[in-house]
Amino acid sequence: MTLKFARLGTAGNEQPAVIAQDARGTEKYFSLLSLTNDIDGRFLAADGIERARKALESGELEEISAEGLRIGAPVSRPGSVIAIGLNYTAHAAESGATPPEVPVVFLKPSNTISGPFDAAPIPPSSEKYDWEVELAIVIGKEASYLSSISEAGECIAGYAVANDLSERDYQIPGAAGQWTKGKSLPGSTPLGPWLVPAADVDPGNLRLRTLVNGEIRQDSNTSDMIFDAATIVHHLSQYMVLEPGDVIITGTPEGVALSGRFPFIKPGDVIELEIDGLGRQRQEYYRAVAGAAQPVSFVSSNA
Questions:
Q1: Which of 84, 147, 177, 235 minimizes the number of CB atoms within 10 Å of its CB?
Q2: Which residues are registered as beta bridge partners of 221?
Q3: Where are the alpha helices (DSSP H) in 203-279?
Q4: CA dist list (Å): 274 to 127, 221, 277
């Protein structure tokens, strides 16, 4: 049985749930509150996915209605959001870069995580805001100085869809161009809608797509990744401690606005991103106002 884990409700008050199909193929939602207060590192580290599976199979979980409820990010605010750059050969080429021989690593603040359908702000002075559909890894147990790639695979709890929104003028050109500045903006990591357990996903063969105002921009497959999911986890564990609940976004395929083939994001644009088996995101974009408080949608339930 393929399960999908979600967090439902207003920002800062999300409740944990699991989605499963009945014998007729109808999706049903079940509360996880009898097992955990949230889908977070503690839940994942305590074998929460398998405990939820067993509780569902034994009929212990209460069925709930998700109608009208906001879908938040599928994991509560992670300790770390680690990102991999230039991890698809064609994207490296369109960026004018040589495909890397080792993973390119950078960090994003955990407060950039937002819900997959939350309205998305364009920074007040931004003219080159860009989309990036990415496969996200969610860590299920601590990983440090792992001895093998197979051991790394055992540390992956599951996968999700991510959008690594990037301001290219802040990121790249001139003396001020720095990846951290271009990748740390409020709401710049929409995540979800679901967390799908690793046992139910083939991360090496997933179609990824991005549509902007209904037109396809990115259409690729994770088989084109330079470094696969387990290799990335193994590599990162040599340089940092990965903790349960941490999120790794694994790079984007070709088709971003940086390529020069498409315009950058404008207020009013609608961007949809999807990965086979992991669901679909949809964001409507608006211009953030300088000096205004950020929307509560960026607040996490354990912030």
A1: 147
A2: 207
A3: 229-237
A4: 25, 11, 9
Looking at residues 173-189, what average pLDDT do you find?
85
pLDDT at 112 over 70: yes
3-class DSSP state of 57? helix
For residue 300, which of 180, 156, 187, 195 has the smallest C-alpha distance?
187
Block residue for tokens 């509360």: 31
| Tokens of residue 274, six digits | 């999807």
- The dihedral region occupied by 245, where left means phi > 0, alpha psi between -120 and 50, and beta the remainder, is left
Q: What is the DSSP string of 141-199?
A: S-BSS-S-HHHHHTTEEEEEEEE--EEHHHHSSSTT--HHHHH--TT-EEB-S-BEEGG
pLDDT band, very low/low/confident/very high, at 145 (cuts 50, 70, 90): very high
- Contacts of residue 202, Cβ cutoff 8 Å, sequence gap at least 6: none
Mean pLDDT of the chain: 93
